[in-house]
Amino acid sequence: METRSNHVLVGAVVLILLAVLAIFTVWLARLGNATEREYDIFFQQAVDGLAKGSTVTYSGVPAGQVKAIGLWKNDPQFVRVRISVNEDTPILQGTMATIQGSFTGPSTVSLDGAKRGAPPIGCDESRLTQTCPYGVPVIPPRAGGIGAILNSAPQLLERLSTLTERLTGLLTDRNQASIAGILQNTNRLTSAFADRAPEIAATLAQTRIAIQQAGDAAQQVGALANTTNGLLAEDVRPAMQNLNKAIASAQQASDTLNGAIGDARPGLQTFSKQTVPEANRLVHDLRQTAAALSSVAEKVDQGGASSLIGSPKLPDYKGK
């Protein structure tokens, strides 16, 4: 009886210990999950050397590890990398992820670029499919490191090949001869300049003197302009005042003449309507009188004074 009771007691104690161990394990798991946050990164480049469990660093400081790696189903050009980082890691707006490769060890995910005072990276409820397609925030990638170099290697090789072909086409025998001729002409030109160095120096000196003289002439022109301004201010202004006075006097005389013409206008009308016709008749009479006098004068000249009082004498008749 005692043996059976001891077995029951031992079994109960074992079950209690197992239950406590299970509860402790669950608590540790929940505690570990509570101190970590998960993010997704979509790389559009090869992730060679990166594996599950690879280190995640923030500005070189270990901050977490890679949880999973796989192709993105929506677009196979992208590789989705799930990472978990410590809760105190500042994953803020501006943070970007880079794959840092190594020739001697596994690659790592490097995070940096957070801005002080920026809000943390999170899920936008209005754009949940874009910001959190798999339920966790997304950290934008940035090409860099050996992976970026390897990805751009084909383009670099293609550009190097194109550059080599162009250089080969440029450095033909004909172009080389042209380049040699250009170099020879350059040497001749340099020698000619060296021979003409004294003349060039003299020309530069004369140019310097000419520039100085031009500056002096410009200064004199400025002084002349100032003098002209003074003369205009001293002589022209009084003359303009006198001219203004003369114009005012002429205007006054014109006004007076207009008044006099206005006053004389009735007399002029009477002169034009009465005096002028009478003067015309007088002139007509004088013309008639002059004609009569001319006729009398002709008679006196031809017949003498007796022609004025008698008839003209007939000529004597003589027979044959």
Automatic annotation (TrEMBL):
Name used for this protein in its record: Phospholipid/cholesterol/gamma-HCH transport system substrate-binding protein
UniProt entry tagged with the keyword Transmembrane helix: yes
Taxonomic placement: Bacteria, Pseudomonadati, Pseudomonadota, Alphaproteobacteria, Sphingomonadales
Natural source organism: Sphingomonas aerophila
Alphabetically ordered keywords of this record: Membrane, Transmembrane, Transmembrane helix
Pfam families documented for this protein: MlaD (PF02470)
The Mce/MlaD domain, residue ranges: 39-109
Superkingdom in the source lineage: Bacteria
Residue spans crossing the bilayer: 7-29
